[in-house]
Structure to design on (917 residues):
């Protein structure tokens, strides 16, 4: 049996996703050197490498003791690290992954040609030292230190960031020798601070000063610091290297977070959601529209801006595409993009009939950070009180009861939007299963109607045409006898027990009800894959008609209330 | 491919030769690690002093090399120290965390042999020890790849190597948690310890941790640790105490239940009352569907009368929870005002 220790510390995903440190190492003809690392302040006295001999179990908590605090990184002196990161040329230009005990280092070493070019631009040398340099090759490695338990996808994210920054530096070096001048500046600080005969082991305090000065003087160090801080806080990197090259990256697992600390957001969730997205879904921006517009890079496509300007949580994507004069495929793509970057989420557009309830794992402590944030926005309300009102599913209609005056209604809508933005509310939908006999789901052949199936593939081009086409075919009402004929045919496909069960229902005798039921059945809407709103949208039926139908045939239908599976992946399970 | 189910592709031992520098001493299969590759990564395999006795994993081109470099300081060596490293080589995209303890243990074993009679350092010259070493490594590689364990006997010592999957630490179970069997525990297997053997018969999805401790006449701490261990092994999962006043709701997985008709029989068998006619799937599904926000389980039971439907209501909930078709909704009482906290 395993010994889990006295305190079973629970490992949060947070620690696995965030980097512990970022390093910049160079290797050229003059040898390797750790130019910069961030964060550089060592906490307390540096620990020397003796910790490794400790008995360590395979287990997490033993890992925790050491790795979680970034202090363990201090075990390794800068010299050792730089010799590790200054890889042989064979390992250049590909993913560099090294794990030492509980720390995983990842980077993308690249070789950059320096010097030799004519235009030593604005950064050319310090202190009038501008003699042209002979061309040489320098190896640069930007390395992130991560928790050893970090998932491969997360590790890969950091590799990508390192690669992006590396490519930007390569370009800037070619353009204006930015990199070599930065390296020269950094080396100068290192040299000027290195006094006398100190050996490297006990100079971590000194080193801190080096790095502090480098951070003050070198813009590259500032960029690296920003990369580190941005990823640690928001998960999104957006820098302009040398004020010239944009480097943007998004660590999805960091941007999308769950209330449950031990649960991960897997990037494929987004794909899953986007695959299932339909024109009746809506978009919900997670940030203020203005803030979002300001944060967009300069070269943003005007369509994105247009969609954001036309956006409203009550609009479906279809409406949004009409309003912003874009094809629905474009709107889908933009929605996907916004969701990926954590700027928006997919919802069902706000309507009066929407049923909301509180999401699982929402923090319930008094005065938690969400409660305080909420108080700031809605001073007259208390988050926990509002949450308790949603303990049981509540519709918007009910919340905005006509007794109250109008203004409180609109505040309620604002509150619901806020709660949805913070994933504190989830929406319940009604799903229908056709189970006429005791054996379970009725077995029948569905109509092999391509139009409807198409709808579930994310359309790449000309989707508008397709959606219009579909609703047209349905609205071209076939003659009465023809549709009756189809319904009869459907009915005969059911087995005997199922037919009997149908016969027992009085509404079967009513041709209109019977035909509608058979039509929906034939379309495969009663297998629990489509919620009421979806059926209403796809079949152009009014809610009241559908509800009536469900009521009339309640003996053969089973109604389930649950979340839309497409949206549910954004919630902790 | 299951990334944990990755075989060791090669095992090699290398050391620092006093004149030739880093050098591969022996490897199985032969010539797996090319000289070029070895030279590229030798910095990480025979590293500088500070990195001795660290588990080092380096990913290079299409392989992942896992090693535990060791330095033995002794006057008898030409450089006053002997450096060696036993490395496992795996596919570059595989997990190797679970091999780490094995590498460490094997290295400790080899270190002892080396200290005793220069087993490694002399194998450079002697063909006999070279042969012996080759045998050992081959056995380790084959056994671990085949059976996930290996028992090594050499010079009156026995080394047990066992691959254990690494995953997160499960939370400590509370006294009121109820363990629910997910996969059967075969008590005949000798892999279970005494406590587990004592505890296992009482794990039935009904007894909570505290009660199990009483029934098994064990300390609650022992039982808690045992239950936590079983959670780690994925043998059980923890659920809340079953009460009729609990509230359960359907999750999005419920649609799988309806759609996978091939499993209907299993569902019916698991949920029907024993010694009676079988329940019908429709009734079972109807009861699941009735689990909504706001309806306590007792309300549902009163509405459906599960006895008359031959449904074992307790099994219904257990089955639903174990398969994730339903989840429990809990009440969280909160005192809203700070000033009221004192009064409570």
């Amino acid at each position: 049996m395993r010994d889990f220790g006295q305190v079973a510390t629970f490992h949060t995903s947070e620690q696995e996703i965030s980097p512990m440190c970022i390093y910049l190492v160079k290797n050229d003809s003059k040898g390797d050197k750790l130019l910069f690392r961030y964060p550089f302040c060592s906490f307390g006295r540096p620990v020397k490498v003796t910790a490794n001999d400790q008995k360590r179990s395979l287990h997490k908590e033993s890992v925790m003791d050491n790795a979680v605090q970034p202090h363990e990184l201090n075990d390794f002196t800068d010299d050792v690290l730089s010799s590790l990161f200054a890889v042989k040329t064979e390992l250049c230009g590909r993913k560099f992954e090294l794990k030492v005990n509980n720390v995983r280092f990842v980077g993308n070493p690249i070789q950059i040609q320096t010097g030799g070019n004519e235009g030593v631009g604005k950064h050319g040398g310090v202190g009038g030292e501008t003699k042209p340099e002979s061309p040489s090759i320098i190896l640069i490695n930007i390395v992130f230190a991560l928790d050893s338990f970090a998932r491969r996808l997360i590790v890969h994210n950091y590799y990508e960031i390192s690669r992006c920054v590396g490519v930007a530096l390569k370009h800037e070096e070619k353009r204006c020798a930015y990199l070599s001048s930065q390296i020269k500046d950094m080396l100068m600080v290192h040299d000027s601070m290195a006094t006398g005969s100190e050996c490297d082991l006990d100079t971590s305090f000194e080193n801190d000063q080096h790095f502090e000065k480098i951070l003050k003087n070198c813009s590259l160090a500032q960029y690296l610091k920003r990369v580190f801080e941005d990823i640690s806080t928001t998960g999104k990197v957006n820098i302009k290297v040398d004020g010239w090259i944009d480097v943007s990256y998004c660590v999805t697992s960091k941007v999308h977070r769950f209330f449950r600390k031990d649960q991960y957001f897997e990037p494929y969730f987004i794909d899953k959601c986007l695959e299932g997205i339909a024109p009746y879904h809506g978009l919900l921006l997670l940030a203020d529209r203005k803030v979002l517009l300001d944060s967009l890079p300069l070269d943003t496509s005007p369509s994105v801006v247009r969609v954001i300007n036309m956006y409203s949580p009550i609009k479906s994507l279809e409406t949004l595409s009409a309003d912003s004069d874009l094809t629905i495929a474009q709107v889908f793509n933009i929605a996907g993009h916004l969701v990926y970057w954590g700027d928006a989420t997919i919802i069902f557009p706000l309507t009066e009939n929407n049923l909301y309830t509180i999401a699982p794992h929402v923090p319930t402590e008094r005065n938690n950070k969400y409660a305080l944030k909420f108080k700031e926005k809605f001073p007259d309300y208390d988050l926990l009180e509002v949450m308790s009102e949603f303990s049981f599913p509540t519709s918007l209609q009910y919340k905005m009861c006509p007794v109250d005056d109008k203004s409180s209604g609109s505040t309620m809508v604002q509150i619901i939007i806020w709660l949805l933005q913070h994933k504190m509310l989830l929406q319940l939908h009604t799903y229908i299963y056709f189970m006429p006999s005791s054996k379970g789901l009725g077995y029948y052949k569905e109509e092999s109607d391509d139009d409807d199936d198409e709808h579930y593939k994310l359309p790449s081009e000309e989707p508008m045409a397709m959606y219009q086409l579909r609703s047209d075919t349905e609205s071209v009402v076939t003659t009465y006898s023809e549709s009756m004929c189809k319904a009869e045919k459907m009915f005969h496909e059911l087995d005997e027990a199922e037919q009997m069960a149908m016969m027992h229902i009085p509404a079967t005798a009513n041709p209109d009800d019977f035909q509608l039921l058979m039509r929906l059945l034939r379309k495969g809407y009663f297998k629990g894959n489509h919620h009421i709103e979806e059926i209403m949208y796809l079949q152009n039926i009014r809610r009241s008609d559908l509800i009536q139908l469900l009521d009339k045939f309640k003996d053969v239908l089973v109604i389930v209330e649950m979340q839309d599976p497409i949206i549910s992946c954004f919630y902790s399970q | 491919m299951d990334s944990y189910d990755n075989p060791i592709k090669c095992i090699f031992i290398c050391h620092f030769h006093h004149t030739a520098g880093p050098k591969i001493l022996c490897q199985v299969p032969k010539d797996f690690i090319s000289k070029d590759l070895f030279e590229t990564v030798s910095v990480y395999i025979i590293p500088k002093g500070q990195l001795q006795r660290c588990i080092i994993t380096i990913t290079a081109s299409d392989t992942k090399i896992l090693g535990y470099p060791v330095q033995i300081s002794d006057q008898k060596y030409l450089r006053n120290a002997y450096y060696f490293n036993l490395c496992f080589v795996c596919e570059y995209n595989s997990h190797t965390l679970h091999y780490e303890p094995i590498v460490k243990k094997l290295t400790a074993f080899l270190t002892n042999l080396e200290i005793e009679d220069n087993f490694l350092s002399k194998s450079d010259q002697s063909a006999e020890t070279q042969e012996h070493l080759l045998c050992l490594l081959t056995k380790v590689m084959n056994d671990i790849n085949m059976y996930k364990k290996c028992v090594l006997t050499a010079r009156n010592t026995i080394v047990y190597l066992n691959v254990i999957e690494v995953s997160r630490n499960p939370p400590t179970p509370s006294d009121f948690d109820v363990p629910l069997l997910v996969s059967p525990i075969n008590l005949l297997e000798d892999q279970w310890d005494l406590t587990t053997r004592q505890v296992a018969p009482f794990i039935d999805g009904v007894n909570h941790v505290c009660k199990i401790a009483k029934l098994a006449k064990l300390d609650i701490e022992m039982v808690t640790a045992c239950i936590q261990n079983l959670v780690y092994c994925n043998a059980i999962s923890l659920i809340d105490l079953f009460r009729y006043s609990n509230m359960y709701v359907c999750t999005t997985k419920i649609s799988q239940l309806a759609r996978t008709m091939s499993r209907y029989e299993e569902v019916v068998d698991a949920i029907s009352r024993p010694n009676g006619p079988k329940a019908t799937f429709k009734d079972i599904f109807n009861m699941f569907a009735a689990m909504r926000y706001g309806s306590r389980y007792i309300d549902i039971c009163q509405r459906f009368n599960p006895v008359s439907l031959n449904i074992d209501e307790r099994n219904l909930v257990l089955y639903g929870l174990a398969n994730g078709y339903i989840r429990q909704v809990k009440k969280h009482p909160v005192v809203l005002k700070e000033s009221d906290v004192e009064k409570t």
Remarks:
- Chain A touches chain B through 72 residues (CB under 8 Å).
- Chain A has a mean pLDDT of 79.
